[in-house]
Amino acid sequence: MEIKNIEFEEFIPEEKGYTDTESLGIEDNLILDEESELELGGVRFNENEEEQWTIDEQLRLLSVYFKDMANEPLLTPKEEINISARIKKCETRAKEIKAILDKLSKERFSKSKRNGHKNGKRKEPSKRVEKLNALMKAYSENAKRLKQRFVKANLRLVVSLAKRYMRRELPLADLIEEGNTGLMRAVEKFDHTKGYKFSTYASWWIHQAMSRALLDQTRTVRVPVYLLEKSGKVYRISSMLRKEKGRKPMPEEIAKKSGIPLEVVKRILDATGDVVHLDTPLPGGEGATFLDFISDKELPAQESVMAKIALTQKIKKVLSLLTPREEEIIRLRFGIGYENTYTLDEIGGKFNLTLERIRQIEKAALEKLAKSEMGEVLKSFLQE
Question: Which distant-in-sequence residues (6+ apart) come within 8 Å of 211 by Cβ?
């Protein structure tokens, strides 16, 4: 392809045969005309009337969105074909120029590698390359601008379809946002040469985007969308087999009838069951809930609580064998009845005795406890 033959045609003028902006006469009920109204609950918008909008922030933002949307003129079928053709042409030209630039870049790199850079400097891009870069950028920006025009002209289609999904746990604003994502995808993929109207083609992408959002965002437990999309078939087959056999069908039977792998069927049945809330009252449970039957792992077991109480009672009993001074020294030394333990020096300060004397009293008290009848009982607690 000769570079001199590539000309930027003032952003691709309208092609011959598509300058007429009159409708082809094909009606499409999915597209709202400019006089139609958008309803949101009890709130209505008409571009020819001044409506009193609710103070609610979401509705206020939607009202601004609807007003901006109403100012965007609709496209006739011929205009849709024309704009789509211009988008494809701009994208094709941009790709062609990029391929030429890549080729020139490789040639320049190979040549400079063979000859080396003069004076150690990289050669500046030629005017030819600069012109090609400018053309590629212009074609790309024009394709982007035309796509935006296409999207804006079909925003009403998204709203009309989003209204069908209202009251399904997602706010209208979120549904519109997801639908707009599908609309942009439809603009990217639309092929005007197939002979379909854009609204018919885009409706599928918009429906898919909103349906997937509902599946993905409205469940308490998130389940992969691909499983939810197959779950409908699984449950239809399951219901049919239940009626035929008069019992709950086995996963193997569902897999054989539906043609879905057994492992996938099992995963769907496990993952898409109804969510049971813990505060749900049990039938005949006299007010009891599922939560009442779930153990708290952070709470100590009943046996350990009882053992701790028994140990406390035994320690209290065995310490009574000591003199009051010996008992207090042992309590301070091991923190029995106190938040902290104390050193021999700290205990000596309390009793006005030397550190060595406190050590002797402690040793004598422990020997007395070890030789007592309660010594073996205390050892049994240590073994447990």
Answer: 165
SS3 44: strand
Residue of 167, 182, 189 whose CA lies nearest to 213: 182
Amino acid sitting at position 56: D
136 neighbors 101 (Cβ within 8 angstroms): yes
Share of residues in the chain with pLDDT > 70 (%):
67
Tell me the C-alpha distance between 205 and 50, whole Å. Answer: 33
CA distance 17 to 203: 27
**Residue keyed to tokens 């406190």:** 358
Q: Which SS3 state, helix, strand or coil, does residue 193 take?
A: helix
Residue 290: phi and psi, rounded to 5, are -60, -35
Q: Which of 5, 187, 213 is nearest to 96 (CA)?
A: 5
For residue 265, give Cα distances in angstroms to 32, 225, 256: 42, 14, 10
R_g (Cα) of the chain, nearest Å: 40
Q: What is the pLDDT of residues 305-324, one digit of tens each?
A: 566 667 677 778 888 888 98
Q: Where are the alpha helices (DSSP H) in the chain?
A: 57-70, 77-115, 127-153, 155-162, 172-189, 198-217, 225-245, 251-258, 262-271, 302-319, 324-334, 344-351, 355-371, 375-383
The CA–CA distances, whole Å, from 346 to 15, 333, 349, 352, 356 equal 100, 9, 5, 10, 12
Note whether 262 and 252 are within 8 A (CB): yes
Domains of the chain from N-terminus onward:
3-34+73-114+124-197 (1.20.120), 219-294 (1.10.10.10), 303-383 (1.10.10.10)
Q: What is the dihedral of CA 137, 140, 146, 149, to 10 degrees?
A: -80
pTM over 0.70: no
pLDDT tens sequence across 78-120: 999 999 999 999 999 999 999 998 888 888 777 776 665 555 4
* pLDDT value of residue 305: 57
Tokens of 54: 């609710």
